[in-house]
Amino acid sequence: xxxxxxxxxxxxxxxxxxxxxxxxxxxxxxxxxxxxxxxxxxxxxxxxxxxxxxxxxxxxxxxxxxxxxxxxxxxxxxxxxxxxx
Length: 85
Ligand SMILES: [Zn+2]
Prior knowledge:
Layout: E1 5-9, E2 14-20, H1 21-28, H2 32-41, E3 46-48, E4 54-57, H3 58-65
Antiparallel strand pairs: 1-2, 2-4, 3-4
């Protein structure tokens, strides 16, 4: 299987480069658990493959990686209306 692929990102509203988890947290320079935390908080865009593996929108990663070497939340600029998780 390829390590990277393009999928439609519902948050970006366009086709994005998605990377698997193990690449995503390296790319962002955070730990695996931090990446799961980001996913949980939906600070990164992600989607699940039919196989159950999660892949991460690289665009959202590059935002998250800025000024956040660890654990810190990316700046919550997106005015998100109270979406129940
Ligand atoms: Zn995205």
